[in-house]
Amino acid sequence: MTEETRITLQTGAGGAKMHEFLNKIGCEKLGIPEKFMETDSFTFKAGKKNYNFTTDMFVVTPLFFNGGDIGKLSVCGTVNDLITGGAKPLYLALALVIEEGFLEEELFKILKSIKDTAKEAGVEIVTGDTKVVRRGECDGCFICTTGIGEQILKNRPNPARVEDGDIIIITGTIGDHSVAILEAREEFGIKTGISSDCASLNKPFLEVFESGIDCKFLRDPTRGGLASVLNELVLSSDSRIEIFEKNVPVRKEVVGFCELTGLDYLNLANEGKMVIVIKEKEKDKTLDILKKHRLTEEADVIGRISKKEKPVVILHTAIGSTRIVPFPVGELLPRIC
Known about the structure:
The chain contains 9 helices and 14 strands. By secondary structure, it is α+β, with helices and mostly antiparallel strands. Strands 9-11-8-12-10-13-14 form a 7-stranded mixed beta sheet, with helices on both faces. The longest helix has 18 residues, at 104-121.
């Protein structure tokens, strides 16, 4: 058996390897239509309403970090995935895999975090499951959350809907989550004080949805970061994307961390940010709403879509040069979410 036939950490890293693997198992092995593989949730009709359905697994290490823990992460991640489909999150199912010997005190802290985060996000935990495995078969605790939300947007966000001249917005600073996790692991011995951006974005986005703004594309840039989301959009929409480094919000501590470690903040994971594509004429209305909310007050336009040139992601750097932003390749940060 060759290494190419084995699952590696790269397979779950959120970059090119993961994109290829998901298409392989989803389209080829499970028979899922390709159009469903391009979104984070599935839309179905019940009665006169449409609903979104999604599921996600969380295996972060360490379980507790500055700005959150695996419990908060599990709620925020699934809530945000429902938002990417234009839905109002309503209900969550919760499944726990717990390692023998795990401290009850830590489990109760995680459960309290889940309860508090769900309450703040306006969602209910309605069902779930628990399994206990032998010591060494699970790194403390794994969590799977499944969510259902009511479709609010009339036109569901989809990469196929983007058009020439559309603009791209990011809702805030990038890379915070990855840096917070790496600092908690103490692998580099670098202290930045950065807190994870882990947050549910339902409040600002429900206002965006209800305002009538047509969100053509929505995606939370988690594994693989902003670079991965933009490259996925290029592949799915056959478009060229140009972004401007001076407009990309990033904290100086994250920039400094990347300079010391050789990481690229465009590839770093985020757990409380959203990438949005809209018509340029809706820019002011969208930013006015986002900037009213604490979690999205640093939102800014970072680029635009072109349908007339070769599909690729181009970065206009702060010093006036340009470079291609590739799909992240390789495992940058294992067990990040």
